[in-house]
């Protein structure tokens, strides 16, 4: 099987990936980011609500398939499914496929919120110190009545590496 290096993937970088795996993982990650963003705004979305809306608006999809897209078990949605999900969340379809755009958005976000310098200072620190910094930031968010942030990789034993 033909494989390629994934060292330049901004979302996840396994040593080797099969063709299509990188975009499948990117799609899953971005779909779940949209759900997380809605949750941070106080919205509790369910897969069923999104599936119902899509089906009602001409983008038929099954509950089970949508669940598989969110979990990463299904990795090749049709363009029609991508368009339906994009329409529901009010984002461009390219949100799910454009790696370079995502990098630029992340760079802009880091600059806009002044956190690039904080992240740069953390480079090279031990895991223990990174975890301590994360706990401090969580506490500061709590003091300022900001919603908690679920860490990358939470629940899968990794720290988003």
From TrEMBL:
InterPro entries: Lambda_DNA-bd_dom_sf (IPR010982). This is Transcriptional regulator. It comes from Myceligenerans indicum.
């Amino acid at each position: 099987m033909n494989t390629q290096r994934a060292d330049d993937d901004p979302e996840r970088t396994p040593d080797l990936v099969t063709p299509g795996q990188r975009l499948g993982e990117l799609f899953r990650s971005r779909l779940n980011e949209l759900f997380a963003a809605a949750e941070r705004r106080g919205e509790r979305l369910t897969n069923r609500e999104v599936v119902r809306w899509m089906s009602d608006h001409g983008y038929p999809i099954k509950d089970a398939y949508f669940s598989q897209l969110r979990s990463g078990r299904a990795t090749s949605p049709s363009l029609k499914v991508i368009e339906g999900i994009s329409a529901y969340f009010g984002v461009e379809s390219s949100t799910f496929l454009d790696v370079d755009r995502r990098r630029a958005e992340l760079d802009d976000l880091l600059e806009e919120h002044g956190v690039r310098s904080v992240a740069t200072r953390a480079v090279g620190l031990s895991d223990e110190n990174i975890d301590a910094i994360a706990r401090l930031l969580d506490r500061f968010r709590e003091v300022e009545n900001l919603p908690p942030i679920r860490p990358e990789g939470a629940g899968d034993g990794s720290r988003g590496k």
